[in-house]
């Protein structure tokens, strides 16, 4: 009699354990599926191929930039500057919120139309909300003698390219 | 000729009764059933105090907000018939809507002004609820849903702003998405996923279009339904005079002027 009772109790415990096991198994599988879905969702939402312009710009012959000139290439968002020390390229994209700045020859400075940040010709910030100076971009002379700029690569300031 | 007689005949017909099961009649039961057994109206309270329907109780701000939302859905669907969310066509389509499509200018302006009005009304509604103290328990969760609806409203405005694809749109979204990239650690990733690229381009236009026309409106409808349903669940529209006297004494300003509906 007591044996039967004991058996019934272990049955009940086994039953409970089985249920707990399946609940855990179910929740575990759901968690794995949810994690997998998150990964797939992220991968799906991040494009693998971008139809964006190349970061490398061919800026043409150095002779087309007169001495002491600042030339804005609006489409690529860079300045080609021919200073006394040589050529360099400055990002024209404001470090504040990404507007394209403009060179103001009458002021001798770079000015952002969105929130009024001002920069010197070498990229240093004069005033405004911009948190950082305008970065210098990697510039070199191609084998054909053209000025090349890699927009995706920042370099330390004051690295002039001499022709 | 008595037209109400014909209306009663229609209401008593088999077809009508198969759709509206509450039955004919003007008894309280029939009128209650008409609300309770309608999939849309059952979200609301079966009975409402007459004074809660007066202008002074709510200034109808929530209802007006919902009205602008319905206007925006109706005009937005019509605008979608002429608008292609692609870089070469988006701006030209916007101009076509203004100058070529019959009533296009009216629909576009109605969409734009309704959008402005909706943002204004959402804030007015929130101020009204806040200063009347209608956000307090048991309505605190409905206030939270209201915050979610505020965010959805602002996101709808933001995503719609890019679609004309003009200079204003382009730079506003450039600036706005760069604000998103200021989020610590994940900022760059959020910026990339939001735009579907590194700059505001074809992918960004399409993503904002899908957000603006599908994802955000569906989210809005979902939360609006919960918002309305919670009004009933939380005891109907907030009436200050329906609170216990003890609670009213704690709010001295309103207690000084015991108006019917606060």
Question: What labels describe this entry?
Answer:
heterodimer; A: 163 residues; alpha+beta; Rieske Iron-sulfur Protein; six-stranded antiparallel β-sheet; four-stranded antiparallel β-sheet; 1 helix; 10 strands; 28% strand; elongated; B: 262 residues; mainly alpha; Cytochrome Bc1 Complex, Chain C; 0% strand; globular; disordered C terminus
Task: Give a description of the structure.
- The complex is a heterodimer of chains A (163) and B (262).
- With 163 residues, chain A is α+β, with helices and mostly antiparallel strands.
- Chain A has 2 domains: 51 residues; 100 residues, Rieske [2Fe-2S] iron-sulphur domain (Rieske Iron-sulfur Protein).
- Helices cover 27% and strands 28% of the residues of chain A.
- Chain A is built from 1 helix and 10 strands.
- In chain A, a hairpin with a 2-residue loop joins β3 and β4.
- The longest helix of chain A has 44 residues.
- Chain A is elongated and about 100 Å long.
- The relative contact order of chain A is 0.14.
- By secondary structure, chain B is mostly helical.
- Chain B has a domain of 178 residues: Cytochrome Bc1 Complex, Chain C (Up-down Bundle).
- Chain B contains 13 helices and no strands.
- In chain B, α8 crosses α9.
- The C terminus of chain B is likely disordered.
- At the A-B interface, loops of A face α9 of B.
């Amino acid at each position: 009699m007591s044996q039967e009772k004991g058996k019934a109790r272990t049955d009940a415990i086994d039953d409970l354990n089985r249920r707990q096991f399946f609940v855990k198994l179910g929740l575990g599988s759901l968690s794995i599926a949810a994690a997998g879905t998150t990964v797939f969702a992220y991968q799906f939402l991040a494009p693998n191929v971008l139809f964006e312009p190349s970061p490398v710009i061919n800026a043409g012959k150095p002779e087309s930039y007169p001495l002491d000139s600042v030339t804005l290439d609006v489409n690529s968002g860079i300045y080609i500057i021919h200073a006394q020390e040589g050529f360099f390229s400055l990002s024209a994209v404001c470090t504040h919120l990404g507007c394209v700045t403009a060179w103001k020859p009458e002021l001798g400075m770079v000015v952002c139309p969105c929130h009024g940040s001002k920069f010197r010709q070498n990229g240093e910030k004069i005033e405004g909300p911009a948190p950082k100076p305008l970065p210098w971009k990697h510039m070199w002379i191609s084998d054909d003698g053209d000025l090349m700029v890699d927009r995706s690569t920042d370099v330390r300031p004051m690295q002039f390219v001499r022709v | 000729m008595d037209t109400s007689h014909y209306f009663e005949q229609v209401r008593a017909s088999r077809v009508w009764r198969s759709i509206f099961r509450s039955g004919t009649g003007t008894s309280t039961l029939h009128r209650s059933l008409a609300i309770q057994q309608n999939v849309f109206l059952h979200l609301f309270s079966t009975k409402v105090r007459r004074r809660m329907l007066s202008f002074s109780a709510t200034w109808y701000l929530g209802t007006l907000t919902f009205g602008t939302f319905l206007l925006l859905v109706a005009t937005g669907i019509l605008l979608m018939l002429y608008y292609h969310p692609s870089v070469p066509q988006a701006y030209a389509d916007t101009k076509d809507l203004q100058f070529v499509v019959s009533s296009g200018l009216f629909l576009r302006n109605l969409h734009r002004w309704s959008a402005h009005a909706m943002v204004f009304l959402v804030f007015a509604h929130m101020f009204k609820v806040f200063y009347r103290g209608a956000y307090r328990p048991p309505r605190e969760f409905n206030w939270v849903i209201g915050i979610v609806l505020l965010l959805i409203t602002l996101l709808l405005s933001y995503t719609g702003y890019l679609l004309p694809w003009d200079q204003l749109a382009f730079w506003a979204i450039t600036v706005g998405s760069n604000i998103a990239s200021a989020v610590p650690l994940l900022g760059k990733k959020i910026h990339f996923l939001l735009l579907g690229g590194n700059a505001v381009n074809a992918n960004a236009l399409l993503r904002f279009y899908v957000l603006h026309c599908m994802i955000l409106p569906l989210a809005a409808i979902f939360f609006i339904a919960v918002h309305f349903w919670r009004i009933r669940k939380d005891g109907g529209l907030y009436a200050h005079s329906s609170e216990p006297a003890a609670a009213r004494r704690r709010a001295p300003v309103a207690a000084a002027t015991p108006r019917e509906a606060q």
